[in-house]
Each structure stands twice: as structure tokens, then as C-alpha cells.
């Protein structure tokens, strides 16, 4: 049987060890004679799973005590609305638009107040991160919003904007736990789990306590209020219980691999060899501006759409799955999240070299 490497942008590859452990525990979680899927979310056993997941995430990211960790549902997209509903107290916020996801967040923000687009890279198909040195923040902005890793275009902020004290909110869906980060620089971080953390259905939000309050946009549903979930410790209603369990196993796996420093080292190695190959190739070309390249999503083209299509098809036949770029930009994208082994990237490069020789 040929080895399959899954380069999907999300849902995405998970560590084999985690899937094996989940399989081992599928019918009987630690002697409970129940699957985690079958357990009451109010049971002692499940409470342990949730608390341990939270504690491990706190440890991995060194989350200070004045930040709340919430396990939510509705995907990152629901956060596009929850953020303004809960945090746009002055009905104004600034957005830096570096791709479709940030753009969608800004459009959603506009439903609740003034969502100012203070910088954008749309002029060049979001292939770069705009200049962050001369941003004009709005006087009344409640927050500045960014999407830190742009899944579709393969760009990532290498530095954060200095927001001069305005809380920074960052969508980290596609770079969650890929390297260490300083949580204290943010008012809020959030992301869907389905790329680096676990299965789809779990959204994690990390919010600085002082941003939370009773005052929310009029008519905000109870389920869409952060304080509802803070007060109930992510157990206001039935949480995505099984998904959180898998996230917990992934947190333990990351700890066993040297934590976020270990992830960064591996991710830099993997992305490094792939970008080096792209830079030396006479056929393939990276599409993101060099200084803004993502470690997680590597986007490239041949410059010929027919050849791109041929490449994706032949790659699939060889076991390299999901290399087609996002439908809005075309080309190719290799998502090489934490759980993609280095062998997978090496095998892909070998295949690309062969394709280049045969088709140039
Ligand atoms: N933000 C980013 C950076 C994403 O990559 C995605 C999904 N690919 C989303 C938000 C939307 O996430 P969801 O599908 O969980 O709503």
C-alpha cells in the first residue's frame, strides 16, 4: 500500500500517535467501559478531561491567570460575530485585511458598528502583509483585528502591529500552537481546532479578563456571550465533548515533542526545505512575499494552469492528497501543520523534482 500524505488546509492531518490512542480508548476510556463520546459532559471523568485539556493548553502557551480559556462551537466564523457583539463597546474597531478570512471578519463587524479597514493587501491578491509601521488607528477603536496566518495565501505576520494599547485580537486558526507566542501581547486569540489542534467542531478562544463585561450588543443571544461561557467554565451547554478530548490528546502529544519550541524547530525545518526547493526550482514558484511566508501553508504555482492541474492530479496518484490551492486563488498549496512528518515534505519535494524533470 502506498503511503498517503495529507496536505489538506483543514480539517487536516493529526498525529498518528493521537489517533492510535483515541482508537485504543474508543470503546473503554480508562476502565469506564464507555467511549468518551458516550459520557455525560457533567460526569467526573469528563470534567477531568476538560480540565486537563485546559491546563495543558495553559502550560503550552504560558497563558497568564488573567486570561480565560473557552472551548466554544460554531467555528472561527462565529467568532467574527461574537467579537463585535461582545467587545465593540464603542461600536468601532480597526481591521487589517490580509485575506478572505479577515475580510469576512470585517464585514461581520460592520453589522455591529464601524469596522474600519486600516490596511489591506487585496491589491496584490493578499500575497503580502501590509506595512505595519504607519498604521492610523481610530481614536475610538475598541480593538484592532488581525488574521495572523493567512491559510489561503500562505502569509504570516512576522511581527505584530504596535496598537498603542488598543487590544489586539488575532485569528490564529491556521498557526495555533505552531510556535511559541507571547499571549500578553493580545487582548484575545482564537481559532478553529481543525488545523493544528483537533477535529472540526471545537473553537478555542483565549480572552483577557478585563475585556469581558456585562455590556454586550443589544439582543446578543445568551450562547453568543463570552461571559455565559466564562461563568460556566465552558460547560454552559453540552460542549463538543469528544472533540475537546482529542484536542487534549494533541496537547499532550505537543508536550511530548518538546512543546512549542519543539514544534517551531520542526516547522521551520519542514517549511525551510520546501521553500528552498521552490526558490531553486525552474518550474515552481512560491506566491507569498518572501519575508511574509507562512510556516504552515506553502502556496506555489507553475505559471501554467494546465500544468498546475496535471501536477495536482499526478501528485494525488502518488499519494500526495489535497495539494490543490484554495478555489479563489488556484495553484497549489501544501499545508504542513504540526502533525505533517518531515518525511512527508521530503517525499513531496522528491516528487516535485521528478515532475519538474519530466515536464520542463
Ligand atoms: N480563519 C482562518 C484563518 C481560516 O483558515 C478559516 C478556515 N479555513 C476560518 C477562519 C474559518 O473557520 P471555520 O470554518 O472554523 O469557521
- Helix count, per DSSP? 9
Main beta-sheet annotation: 7 strands, mixed
Number of domains: 2
CATH class of the largest domain: Alpha Beta
Rg over CA atoms, rounded to whole Å, is 21 Å
| Low-pLDDT sequence parts | none
Q: Do you know the CATH topology of the largest domain?
A: Aspartate Aminotransferase, domain 2
**Which structural class is indicated by helix and strand composition?**
alpha/beta
Task: Write down the secondary-structure element order.
Answer: EHHEHEHEEEEEEEHHHEEHEEH
DSSP, total strands: 14
Shape: globular
Strand content: 15-25%
Global mean pLDDT: 97
Short overview:
Pyridoxal 5'-phosphate binds at residues 76-77, 101, 151, 171, 194, 237-238. This protein is α/β, with parallel strands linked by helices and 360 residues long.
Task: Please describe what this structure looks like.
This protein is an alpha/beta fold and 360 residues long. It folds into two domains: 27-256, Aspartate Aminotransferase, domain 2; 259-359, Alpha-Beta Complex (Aspartate Aminotransferase, domain 1), CATH 3.90.1150.10. Helix content is 35%, strand content 16%. It has helices at 16-24, 44-61, 75-87, 100-109, 226-231, 241-256, 259-280, 305-317, 342-359; strands at residues 5-6, 67-72, 92-97, 114-120, 144-147, 149-150, 155-156, 168-171, 188-192, 203-208, 285-286, 297-301, 320-321, 332-335. The strands form four sheets. The chain has a seven-stranded mixed β-sheet with strand order 2-10-9-8-5-3-4. Strand 6 and strand 7 form a beta hairpin. Helix 1 crosses helix 6 (241-256) and helix 7 (259-280) packs parallel to helix 9. The longest helix is centred in the C-terminal third of the chain and has 22 residues, at 259-280. 4'-deoxy-4'-aminopyridoxal-5'-phosphate is lined by residues 10, 75-77, 101, 147, 151, 171, 173-174, 192.
Amino acid at each position: 500500500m502506498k503511503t498517503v500524505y495529507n496536505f489538506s488546509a483543514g480539517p487536516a492531518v493529526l498525529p498518528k500517535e493521537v489517533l492510535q490512542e483515541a482508537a485504543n480508548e474508543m470503546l473503554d476510556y480508562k476502565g469506564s467501559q464507555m467511549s468518551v463520546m458516550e459520557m455525560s459532559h457533567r460526569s467526573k471523568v469528563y470534567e477531568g478531561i476538560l480540565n486537563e485539556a485546559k491546563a495543558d493548553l495553559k502550560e503550552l502557551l504560558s497563558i497568564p491567570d488573567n486570561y480565560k480559556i473557552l472551548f466554544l462551537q460554531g467555528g472561527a466564523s462565529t467568532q467574527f460575530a461574537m467579537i463585535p457583539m461582545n467587545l465593540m463597546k464603542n461600536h468601532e474597531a480597526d481591521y487589517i485585511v490580509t485575506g478572505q478570512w479577515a475580510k469576512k471578519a470585517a464585514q461581520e463587524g460592520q453589522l455591529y458598528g464601524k469596522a474600519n479597514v486600516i490596511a489591506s493587501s487585496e491589491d496584490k491578491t493578499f500575497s503580502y502583509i501590509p506595512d505595519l509601521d504607519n498604521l492610523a488607528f481610530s481614536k475610538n477603536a475598541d480593538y484592532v483585528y488581525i488574521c495572523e496566518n493567512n491559510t489561503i495565501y500562505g502569509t504570516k505576520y512576522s511581527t505584530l502591529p504596535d496598537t498603542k494599547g488598543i487590544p489586539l485580537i488575532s485569528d490564529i486558526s491556521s498557526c495555533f500552537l505552531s510556535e511559541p507566542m507571547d499571549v500578553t501581547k493580545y487582548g484575545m486569540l482564537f481559532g478553529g481546532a481543525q488545523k493544528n489542534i483537533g477535529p472540526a467542531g471545537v473553537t478555542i478562544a483565549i480572552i483577557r479578563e478585563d475585556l469581558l463585561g456585562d455590556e454586550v450588543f443589544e439582543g446578543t443571544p445568551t450562547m453568543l456571550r463570552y461571559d455565559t461561557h466564562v461563568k460556566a467554565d465552558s460547560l454552559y451547554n453540552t460542549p463538543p465533548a469528544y472533540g475537546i478530548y482529542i484536542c487534549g490528546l494533541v496537547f499532550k502529544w505537543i508536550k511530548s515533542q518538546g512543546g512549542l519550541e519543539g514544534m517551531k524547530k520542526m516547522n521551520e525545518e519542514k517549511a525551510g526545505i520546501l521553500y528552498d526547493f521552490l526558490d531553486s526550482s525552474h518550474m515552481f514558484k512560491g506566491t507569498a512575499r518572501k519575508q511574509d511566508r507562512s510556516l504552515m501553508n506553502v502556496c506555489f504555482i507553475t505559471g501554467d494552469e494546465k500544468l498546475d492541474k496535471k501536477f495536482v492530479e499526478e501528485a494525488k496518484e502518488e499519494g500526495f492528497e489535497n495539494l490543490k490551492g484554495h478555489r479563489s486563488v488556484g495553484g497549489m498549496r501544501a499545508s504542513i501543520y504540526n502533525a505533517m512528518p518531515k518525511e512527508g515534505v521530503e517525499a513531496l519535494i522528491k516528487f516535485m523534482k521528478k515532475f519538474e524533470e519530466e515536464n520542463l
